[in-house]
Amino acid sequence: MRHAVMSELPGQQNETMKRSFQLSIAAFCAFVASDGAAEDWRSGYSLYGTPGLIEMPSAFVRPDAEIGMTLGGFENQQRVSFNFQVTPRFSGTFRYSRLAEWGGPGTGDLYDRSFDLHYQALTEGSLRPAVTVGLRDFMGTGVYSGEYLVASKTLSPRLRATLGLGWGRLATEGGFDNPLGVLSDAFDARPALDFGFGGKPSFDQFFRGDAAFFGGAEWQLSDDWVATVEYASDGYARETSLGIVERETPVNFGLSYAPNADYILSAYALGGSDIGFSATLIIDPKDRVARSGSEPAPVPVAVRGRTVPVSQSERVARDVTATALLAEGIVLQGLDIYGRTARVRFENERYRAEAQALGRVARVLTRTMPLSVENFVLEPTRAGLPLSAITIRRSDMEAIENRPNAAAQILDRATVTEAGAGTPPSVVASQASAIAWGLSPYYAVQLFDGSNPLRGEYGLQADLRYALLPNLTLAGTARYRMSENRSDARVSESTLQPVRRNVGLYGEAGEIGIEDLALHWYARPGRALYSRVSVGYLEKMFAGASTELLWKPVDSRVALGAEINYVVQRDYDLGFGAQDFPELDGVYDVVTGHASVYYDFENDFHGRIDVGRYLAGDWGATFALDREFANGWRVGAYATLTDVPFEDFGEGSFDKGVQLTIPLDWAIGTATRDQVDVRLSSLSRDGGARLNVDGRLYETVRGGHVVALQDSWGRFWR
């Protein structure tokens, strides 16, 4: 890369910079003046897994909330990217790359993590192009680091053009003096890249040093095929100087095939010397794979005067209601009838949305309650905790069921208040088994080890859950490992206690291991208060006791929590023992805890801040922001900063990553509360490590509160 600081006289240098700046402005203004009708033509995905051409970005964005998972590359570099359209204009990308022979021919490969941001500042209009600013690899080792300002315009229904200005790696082909230098001399030169431990934003490099133009055009050959040509400003300067990559021309060609909205397949001719390929799987978390639920239809509402209820007496009504609800996957826990009101407490074991369970319970009650009962007070529970009290009039159920917009109408007439006030309803003998168990295969994956980026084990997993009381449960998981052990797992050096970095060693000492086995007790100590106490083998690496208290009013978007834990590090064999550390003359025990603030925003976003002490004894805070959809999908990111210095933390500098929750009912169409949780992050490190205990209170209770009920109320009549 040619730096902007040159052996010119000051006046000559200023004139050069002015000409560069004028050329940049003139090019962009000419492009803005182009006319063309903007069509609903989605941007493609680049080899970097971002909205773009081939290797260069474009100014277009993907549909709101879309997830794109791209596998692409060429002979010497392969990339796996996860792109999420966070808002209609803003997207973020997490990427994991293999760069072959990074130190030169015959040397080892580099496995690199990187993050991108892409923000569309201006949308496309009849005359105005879309304009986007972006950061590539802004928080990694910086091997792909670059910034860009790019404009894209639809010139005709089948032709689009892109013109951009790049910095950093995006200015290593055809670079010239930085036009931003007219604003400040600080933009003239780009500091040398310091890999360090990676993971930190490179603020001192953003939009600095040489700049270069890039651009291209896309031609829609048919509804399924798109041809692309681009002039790339990434010259692969380091790779070509070492003889790792060849680039004979900055011009790339591509051909993409997208027969539907679910995937894109592409092939490329790169730099006159390489062939590249990419495949992108596209997921719309707002849509469903299974277009309609395959669970049995709910029973119709029984209208008084037309349908005779099954029972009239309170005793018989309890038994009949319990049987009918159990067929719906709902366990009746209590039922009282007083005057014209029936109070029903239940636990929904089948439906992800509590609103769907409420609808089914209310319909069953129209068939089992005496004719005189007019008001249904429904109290959903989780882990034996009453979450809320929803009052619905029976006459509204009878009148509204078959009306247009019936869900909204019944919601307008329902009331939601705090649950648990007064005496609990009379306990009903449960017809459901107190013991639940299962045996299934498992596959556990450990990602992003620098020497082995995909490591895993497989075997059989046994799960046990025994409900001694509705709010007192013994739960555990054991695994029989059938794969080879993971003793070759890389364990990095650190001055911290190995509370996470040696997780790969757990389970290697034996084939059978206890993943967790703990007793969990939940209670309601006061109005809007929830508590949890967990004792036992809380997770794979730690055993002990965990206590938690949550304040969460039923109609509030804010929740406050506090958690205190005392734990001991377990032995590698995942048995019942604790591990002895010679340097400690005994076991490692630690008191950890956090104060937490939760906020449910009105636009599907959920924020969380945890402040406290972590497993390695470090103090700090975790910041998390997730976007959750009505169908259960959840996508978010988190970062933890503590008093552990970056050099002690090691590779990555601090803990951060992307997290996903995928509801299984979204994919299979059958009602279930099961879900898959995925975390894409750096290697497990000791700094910022938090105890992984199941059943934390906020996620346990919020599904039965006002905001979550309103968001999922469209399922009430399903």
Q: What does this molecule look like?
A:
There is one protein chain. The protein is mainly beta. It has 3 domains: 10-283, Porin, CATH 2.40.160.40; 314-431, GMP Synthetase, Chain A, domain 3; 515-705, no CATH class. Helix content is 13%, strand content 41%. It contains 10 helices and 33 strands. The strands form 4 sheets. The chain has a 13-stranded antiparallel β-sheet. It has a 12-stranded antiparallel beta barrel with strand order 1-2-3-4-5-6-7-8-9-10-11-12. A hairpin with a 4-residue loop joins strand 8 and strand 9 (225-231). Helix 3 (314-327) packs antiparallel against helix 4 (354-368). It is globular, with a radius of gyration of 30 Å. The protein starts with 9 loop residues before the first helix and ends in a 7-residue tail after the last helix.
Topology (elements, then pairings):
Layout: H1 10-32, E1 67-74, E2 77-85, E3 90-99, E4 110-122, E5 130-136, E6 146-156, E7 159-168, E8 211-220, E9 225-231, H2 237-242, E10 251-260, E11 263-270, E12 274-283, H3 314-327, E13 330-338, E14 341-348, H4 354-368, E15 375-382, E16 385-386, E17 389-393, H5 394-400, H6 406-413, E18 415-417, E19 435-447, E20 454-469, E21 472-481, E22 512-526, E23 529-537, E24 542-551, E25 558-569, E26 580-581, E27 586-587, E28 589-600, E29 605-613, E30 619-628, E31 634-642, H7 646-649, E32 655-663, H8 664-668, E33 675-681, H9 697-701, H10 706-711
Parallel strand pairs: 14-15
Antiparallel strand pairs: 1-2, 1-12, 2-3, 3-4, 4-5, 5-6, 6-7, 7-8, 8-9, 9-10, 10-11, 11-12, 13-14, 15-16, 15-17, 17-18, 19-20, 20-21, 21-22, 22-23, 23-24, 24-25, 25-28, 26-27, 28-29, 29-30, 30-31, 31-32, 32-33
Helix pairs in contact: 3-4
Organism: Yoonia rosea
Protein name: Exopolysaccharide biosynthesis protein YbjH
Pfam family, one: YjbH
